Amino acid sequence: MSIPGNDPQNPQTPNGEPNAPQYGQRAPQDPNAAGQPPYGQPPQYGSQEPNPYGQPPQAPSPYGQPPQAPSPYGQQPYAGGFQVPPQGNFAAPQMPTHRPKELDTSFWAILAAGVVAAVAMITSIFGLNAASLRAELASMEGMEEQLAASGMSLDDIMGMLPTIQTVVVVIAVISLAIYALIAFMIRKGSNVARIFATIFAALSLLSLGSGLLMLVSIILGVVGVVFAWLRPSSQFIAARRAARAAGYR
């Protein structure tokens, strides 16, 4: 028979306090203690137990704070050392003043091609007299029948020779003016003129069998176009285009 107050499972001291835990036993915890969970209840997930020793002071860096390098663009760097990108500090494109010699070569070659082409047209039409024209037209099969069907004869064609010569001269002058305009525009750095010169040079290849002078004109035109597309010429034309886009004229 046990005496009240002397429970063998939980013995107490005479003053009512529990005895010290024996070897192999865990000390009971007071559920009313501040900051302690009830006995047998694990701490909540995510909660941190208080550090019984307190927060240690942070040791100052022995090297100090390294100085920040000044920004070359006059702006403060981002946190972490990244520089702020420059805002509007790019130099505006300038109008180029030095024209490459390739463009000068292209100018003179295209201009010479226009002169030779005009001379070739004029000499060919004025070198054709009435007798040779009559012989050439007569050699064409069915030409007299076609002229008769239209109410004309070879004599009527011979009477139109001065008019034909005048028309050919006008066409030669217009052709020379077009060649000169394209040559001057390419020399100034026009990409549109360079494209037109390329197209005309390709079309002129259809006249390879029109005589020696026309062959020389075609070769000169092709040489002028090739020099207009070389790298120095292309760089000059691109710089001119960028400067004009920026407002220069």
Q: What's a concise summary of this model?
A:
The protein is mainly α.
- In whole angstroms, the N-to-C terminal distance is 121 Å
Low-confidence stretches: 76-90
Helix vs. strand class: mainly alpha
The helix/strand order is HHHHHHHH
Strand content: under 5%
Number of helices: 8
Please identify the oligomeric state: single chain
Number of strands: 0
* Mean residue pLDDT: 74
Radius of gyration: 51 Å
What coarse outline follows from CA principal-axis ratios? elongated
Q: Percent helix among the residues?
A: 40-55%
Give the biggest sheet.
Answer: none
Describe what you observe in this structure:
- With 249 residues, this protein is mostly helical.
- Among the domains are: 101-188; 191-248, no CATH class.
- It is built from eight helices and no strands.
- The termini are far apart.
Which features would summarize this protein structure in a list?
about 250 residues; elongated; mainly alpha; single chain; about 50% helix
Q: Topology of this structure?
A:
Elements: H1 101-126, H2 130-139, H3 143-149, H4 154-159, H5 161-188, H6 191-204, H7 212-228, H8 231-245
Helix pairs in contact: 1-5, 1-7, 5-6, 6-7
